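Anyone able to model this chain together with phosphoric acid mono(formamide)ester?
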Amino acid sequence: MVTTASADFLALEGLSADELRSWIDEAEAMLPFATGARPIASPAPLAGKLVANIFFEDSTRTRCSFEIAAKRLGGDVTNLGASGSSASKGETLLDTARNIEAMGVDAIVVRCAISGGALMLANALDVPVINAGDGRHEHPTQGILDLLTLRRHFEEMHRSGSFAGRTVAIVGDVMNSRVARSATHGLVTLGARVLLVGPPTLVTKDFESLAGAGAGSIEVAHALDPHLGHLDAIMMLRIQLERAAGGAIAADYRSQYGLTEARAARLPERCAILHPGPVNRGVEIDDRVMDDRRLSRILTQVTAGVATRMAVLRRLLAGR
Ligand code: CP
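re: yes, here you go
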């Protein structure tokens, strides 16, 4: 599945390395504004623009950061969730979006359970559509914020932000993860080696052909321990109980795949620890590992999320 017109932002699959780098550069340029350290110059890029957040699945980070991003850029935001909207009376996602568009909004940010739901809206609407996570498909702004976080970490640790030759493990519920898909497309295109690790029920061998054309590579593994000493970054995924992955949480999930304190101690000194959130503490990652300020980049990812969403909103909306 690829993006439609460049007026939308739907997926990282199909973006070239140069296109990815340009998104990461623009997101990085937004970091001082994302934190509020520097106010946006006047006239604000989104002055007079109204962004609609349609979130038909729960969210903390993505919904709030799109809202903060739009406001930091001088725009306004309206929020709609499944609960409290006419979706609870059976109205479809497409009808909901068409009605919101008819109210004169300038862009729609959508999260939904339907893989391909964002593309469906993009094909039907005139306003730009931004994918904030569609089912098991992609979460492209999460992908850019992960790449930005990793590039800055590599620069800090190795004085080079290059992804070539770096090994990034993505661990856990790969099957159900749009975060893993977007990250894998981005990382492989930029030249990294991606190790997808998890139980055979959640990571199958065919994931090795997920991203075909990139400079990097993908390997599937069902054991984490042999790889710990060779990683430049490790991204722990949330076990998605809402997508029926709960059966995979056997009593020994943590003992085989959890980033426990003992496993974290075996990681290379300069290995970054990422997690997209929300975290099941004590399942995929231990408390003390998650809160380790030396290696955990989990809250850095969240700040990068605001910057990334500012970059996307600005490029799609400013001057439109
Ligand atoms: N990473 C992420 O998508 O988090 P939320 O579900 O809280 O938006």
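Residues 31 and 103 are 32 Å apart (CA to CA).
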